[in-house]
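Listing S7. Sequence submitted for prediction.
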Amino acid sequence: MTLARRSPSITPFWYRIPRFFLYPIRLPAIWLLLGVTTLVTVALPMLDGLLSIPLVLFLAFLVFTYCYESLDATAQGNAEPPGIREVLASGGWGLPLKQIAVLFTFGAFGAIATAILGDAGTLVIVLLFNLLLPASVMVLGVERSFMAAVNPLYLGHVVRAIGWPYLGLIGLLFAHEIALGTAMVGVAWILPEGTGPLPYVAGWTLVGVYFTVMSFHMLGYVVYQYHAELGYTVHVDGDEEDELTAELAFFDQLIADERYEAALIELREVMERYPDDINLHQRMFRLAGLTGDVATRLREGDWLIHRLVRGGRAAEAAHVYRQCIAVKADFRPLAAEVHDPLARELRMNGKVREAVQLINGFHLRFPGHHQIPRIYLLAAQIFIDEIKQPKQAEKILAYIRRKHPDSAYHTQVESLLRTLAADPPA
């Protein structure tokens, strides 16, 4: 498997469960489901006895080869199911045989443990088998190595690298098994009495292939999500961004229809899956303004200011701040460290009143903060140079000298005080 660069943000697999269910019915995966089901329904009855065995084996190998290629493609960050022709030409036909060998090997370990330890050994092996089998399938699909897929130390590394979410993965797979059994019972319940065995076989085949493809796709996605921890690198050609664009399509339509309240609900659901995406927060900030949701607008504004300042985008942060104080005049960012760069940006843009309002009371909101001398010195400079109120500047400078005599700005404070004393206001 050739693996390369990671996308900036990968949605955790537990947020993608609905999409896992959609994967087997997307093109071209659905052709596999329909094709195998059709062959079982049409061709199998035409073959008698031993002649049906080669067809069954071929279909089984086709399905599991497709599943492993789906796992591999998903692990590389490809959200689209592979084509049937690609699978036939992939050379992965040996993977189902290797999987059978893995199962026999696990069974041999179980037999040895039972012979040595009795029933206790059987219980331990059964537990280990259920714990390590998903990891073994992932390793076999990615590395295509039988030895790696049966190496308990290597499989243990996979489990540890994924961590506690691995138990969640096992729970999901167990839920899939329950859903598969329920669906097969449903097939028998839906079909009318007196129906021959063939419709049952077709229905069970369709359901079985569907859940198998879905489970392998989910395992591949777990490899994709944890590829850095597992030591892989992954080829991602904007798939995550394309996926996010697709998820926002309904939101964009709601905005176009001016259904802002519904758009707000939709956007919140998307943000649960992409909590750190700054573009989504910017959308939420704008949308909250359209809906008049002041609390959300201020909360998102505070998040954006902190993120933008941290990213060196103080000009954008200042623009967000001005929109926030237009809604609530006494709004102030919650993070102390954003105040100084934000105030300097406001001053540079000629918004000196807003800069002073931002600074005012900083020592009360953040008592003892190390930036108090620096940011109050900035306020004093604004009062001297732009606002032309030297008496107010003198009060601020005197406060800095009295409360922070050992600050790094002591020399500048003293220099400004001497200048003001030498040239008192008229």
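Caption to Listing S7: primary sequence and predicted structure tokens for the chain studied. Confidence is low (pLDDT under 50) at residues 1-8. The CA atoms of residues 181 and 208 lie 9 Å apart.
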